[in-house]
Design goal:
- This protein is of the alpha/beta class and 462 residues long.
- The protein folds into two domains: 107 residues, Urease, subunit C, domain 1; 304 residues, TIM Barrel.
- The chain has 16 helices and 19 strands.
- Strands 1, 2, 3, 4, 5, 16, 17, 18 and 19 form a nine-stranded mixed sheet that branches. The protein has an eight-stranded parallel sheet with strand order 6-7-8-11-12-13-14-15.
- A hairpin with a 2-residue loop joins strand 17 and strand 18.
- The longest helix has 18 residues.
- The protein is globular, with a radius of gyration of 21 Å.
Length: 462
């Protein structure tokens, strides 16, 4: 197949942009890329897919996502994190069934695909949500998923006993750590290697030192990567101080630092933490919308970039973002650091597109196959329609993608060489059925949790 007549932002080593470009796909791989005129003359018998008026970018990669939480969109707005988590989200998630988890995964994946995300890192999927169902949803949909199954053995947040988990979410070593290894043995590499299984460790304070050390040992032995929330809120800093550590000195002490680890949020860091991150090759997932909405603070992205730390981008969950649209996340990531630093030159659009593509691929250990558009890499890419009144005119395609486009402008999505979204419509999933099921199940979860009166508009409804 020849995808022709688009402006192609390759994000390759030279960062070249090809006008009137084309991509040749053979099976699941990019076979050739260049000027449309040249490729059409070289491959005259190939079927053509015209993408005039579109900008093609590598498939977007979300390095932090909670698929279960999309079923809870809008249930916990305008609350600070610990209240948000302990009194609302954990209570709701503690009432999930495996069928709810499957419905939530399909809703999340459908939204991600339609808005241009072709690969995601699920951070902390609980056993009760049904890990098999999550893998099935990835397999059926055609998306690429790195799936973190929760690891924990302490049922509270940080150091305060009042911040206890809902009983329905509590897991032990057998269910969480050993259960993840079982799922890795069953699912890792499935669906033409679109599925990778990860350890999804709970935030420090939710895992004993002994279990962290056992997990990091297994991680190195078997090659199972790790993702973990870290240094998100002040309560996390207080926990680290209580054990005589900074965030990264603690992570180092239990073996968490390294190039197979993605640490998420990373808001409350010392300069010494940034040095440890840089030296260890540990990756960071930046989630500006979640951090801003929950008033957690803002990650020190400019300083991390200066230190050479690899930074990906994530939407986090729908209750603390309200969307899985990584294009919207890109815009905030490019803007928020300018406002904080009062320097309009920091974190330019090009840096943000790298976060959402090649940096994300590197964080997931997949940069040899995805994250840029090059011969021999997997055919994962997104065509964004920029012909509309709200996207015209444009002069720099990177600027148009980062500052102007949203997920609603995504026209075509290709993953592993297969068209999964065409003309903005899902091809691999029944969108109407997914929405119907999600609406029904979300209401059931809220009622089961006894939160029907709390999850309501604040203003009077007649």
């Amino acid at each position: 197949m020849l995808y022709t007549n688009a402006t192609i932002v390759t994000v390759d080593a030279s960062r070249r942009i090809i006008t009137d470009g084309a991509i040749r796909v053979v099976e699941d791989t990019i076979n050739d890329i260049g000027k449309a005129e040249t490729l059409e003359s070289l491959y005259p018998d190939d079927e053509k897919y015209d993408l005039s008026g579109r900008i093609i970018v590598p498939g977007l990669i979300s390095t932090h996502m909670h698929t279960a939480q999309t079923l809870l969109r809008g249930t916990a707005d305008d609350l600070e994190l610990v209240s948000w988590l302990c009194e609302r989200i954990w209570v709701l998630q503690g009432n999930f069934t495996a069928e709810d988890g499957y419905a939530a995964a399909r809703l999340s994946i459908g939204e991600m695909l339609k808005s241009g995300t072709t690969c995601f890192l699920e951070s902390m999927f609980a056993d009760r949500y049904g890990f098999d169902g999550l893998c099935r949803a990835v397999e059926e949909s055609g998306i690429r998923g790195c799936l973190g199954k929760i690891v924990m053995d302490i049922a509270k947040y940080a150091q305060d006993d009042a911040w206890a988990m809902h009983p329905g979410l509590v897991e032990d070593r057998q269910t969480s750590l050993l259960g993840t290894v079982k799922m890795w043995e069953k699912w890792n590499g499935a669906a033409n290697d679109r599925i990778r299984v990860w350890f999804g460790a709970r935030t420090p304070g939710g895992v004993s030192d002994a279990l962290y050390k056992e997990m990091t040992s297994i991680s190195k032995e078997k090659g199972i990567p790790i993702t973990m929330h870290c240094a998100e809120v002040k309560a996390d800093r207080d926990f680290f101080a209580s054990v005589d550590h900074t965030p990264m000195s603690y992570c180092d002490s239990v073996g968490l630092l390294g190039d197979a680890t993605v640490l998420v949020h990373m808001v409350h860091l010392d300069d010494s933490d940034i040095k440890l991150l840089s030296a260890s090759g540990t990756h960071v997932a930046h989630c500006p919308t979640s951090n801003a909405k929950l008033a957690s603070g803002i990650c020190r992205v400019p300083e991390l970039q200066q230190a050479g730390v690899n930074i990906g981008l994530g939407t986090d969950g729908a209750p603390c973002n309200n969307t899985c649209d990584l294009l919207q996340e890109m815009k905030l990531a490019a803007i928020i650091h300018k406002g904080i630093s009062q320097d309009p030159t920091v974190v330019p659009a090009e840096s943000v597109l790298e976060m959402a593509t090649i940096n994300g691929a590197k964080a997931l250990g997949l940069d040899d196959r995805i994250g840029s558009l090059e011969k021999g890499k997997k055919a994962d890419f997104v065509a964004i329609d920029v012909r509309g009144i709200h996207t015209q005119p444009w002069f720099n395609p990177v600027s148009a993608v980062v500052y102007t486009a949203t997920g609603h402008d995504v026209d075509t999505v290709v993953v592993d060489g297969k068209v999964v979204v065409q003309n903005g419509a899902l091809l691999t999933m029944d969108e109407e059925e997914i929405v119907r099921e999600a609406k029904r199940r979300s209401k059931e979860v809220v009622e089961r949790a006894g939160l029907g009166l709390k999850v309501q508009p604040r203003w009077p409804v007649e």
